[in-house]
């Protein structure tokens, strides 16, 4: 599933950032292109905002576009899970949720996550051990240095059973999904411990204006012919 209903306000773009051109195509197209070669993914549900006609379902590409996006990412994911269950998916089926703005993910990373999670009782997520010194802030100044041991940066995709993830999100819908910043946090709130699967430093989430130039450079380098 690809939540694709956000506005990307931090990106500084005139349009939703997922549609901002990067390396000759809207960013979300690069994300979809990385998911396409992973044949164990039966289909990709792209959750867009109601009235958004930018993308179209494509049976050949195993892509279904559903205009059921919500006011927040969590609401869009919950609506997408409900859509899957209403259209034939079973609660025990696996779902991968990926950020449309992580356009540098690779099929190899996705396959590695699937390989690690399939035998696991809970599921898990791509993540990286925190490489930098971590500071706590107060009023624009350092308040403390935090031990970075055993701390990871969460990435996507994140892979869980549809039913478990749907229940985890639904349990917090009334509170506006407070505290749920990704799928793993929802599963954690339900009392489970997701598996950490090492991701890649390239698998950035394009968030700020300068991230577009980095994504463009990486995508163009991948497309360049080998010497």
UniProtKB/TrEMBL annotation:
SUPFAM superfamilies: Nucleotide-diphospho-sugar transferases (SSF53448). Belongs to the IspD/TarI cytidylyltransferase family. IspD subfamily. GO terms for biological process: isopentenyl diphosphate biosynthetic process, methylerythritol 4-phosphate pathway. The gene is ispD. It is an enzyme of class 2 (transferase). Its EC number is 2.7.7.60. The record marks 10, 17 as: Transition state stabilizer. HAMAP family: IspD. Keywords: Isoprene biosynthesis, Nucleotidyltransferase, Transferase. It catalyses: 2-C-methyl-D-erythritol 4-phosphate + CTP + H(+) = 4-CDP-2-C-methyl-D-erythritol + diphosphate. InterPro entries: IspD, IspD/TarI, IspD/TarI_cytidylyltransf_bact, ISPD_synthase_CS, Nucleotide-diphossugar_trans. Pathway: Isoprenoid biosynthesis; isopentenyl diphosphate biosynthesis via DXP pathway; isopentenyl diphosphate from 1-deoxy-D-xylulose 5-phosphate: step 2/6. Catalyzes the formation of 4-diphosphocytidyl-2-C-methyl-D-erythritol from CTP and 2-C-methyl-D-erythritol 4-phosphate (MEP). This is 2-C-methyl-D-erythritol 4-phosphate cytidylyltransferase. It comes from the Bacteria. The keyword Transport does not apply. It comes from Ottowia oryzae. GO terms for molecular function: 2-C-methyl-D-erythritol 4-phosphate cytidylyltransferase activity. The keyword Magnesium does not apply.
């Amino acid at each position: 599933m690809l939540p694709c209903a956000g506005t990307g306000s931090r990106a500084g773009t005139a349009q939703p950032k997922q549609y901002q051109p990067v390396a000759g195509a809207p960013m979300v197209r690069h994300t979809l292109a990385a998911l396409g070669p992973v044949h164990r993914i039966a289909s990709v549900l792209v959750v867009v905002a109601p009235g958004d006609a930018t993308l179209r379902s494509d049976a050949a590409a195993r892509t279904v576009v559903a205009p059921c996006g919500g006011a927040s990412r969590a609401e869009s994911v919950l609506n997408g899970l409900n859509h899957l269950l209403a259209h034939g998916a079973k609660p025990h089926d696996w779902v991968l949720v990926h950020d449309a703005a992580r356009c540098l993910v690779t099929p190899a990373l996705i396959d590695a996550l699937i390989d690690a999670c399939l035998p696991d009782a809970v599921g898990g997520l791509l993540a990286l051990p925190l490489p930098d010194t971590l500071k706590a802030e107060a009023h624009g100044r350092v308040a403390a240095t935090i031990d970075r041991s055993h701390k990871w940066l969460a990435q996507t995709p994140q892979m869980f059973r549809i039913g478990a993830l749907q229940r985890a999100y639904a349990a917090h819908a009334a509170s506006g999904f407070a505290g749920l910043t990704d799928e793993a946090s929802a599963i954690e709130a339900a009392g489970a411990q997701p598996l950490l699967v090492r991701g890649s430093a390239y698998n950035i989430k394009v968030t700020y204006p300068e991230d577009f130039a980095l994504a463009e450079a990486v995508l163009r380098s991948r497309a360049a012919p080998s010497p």
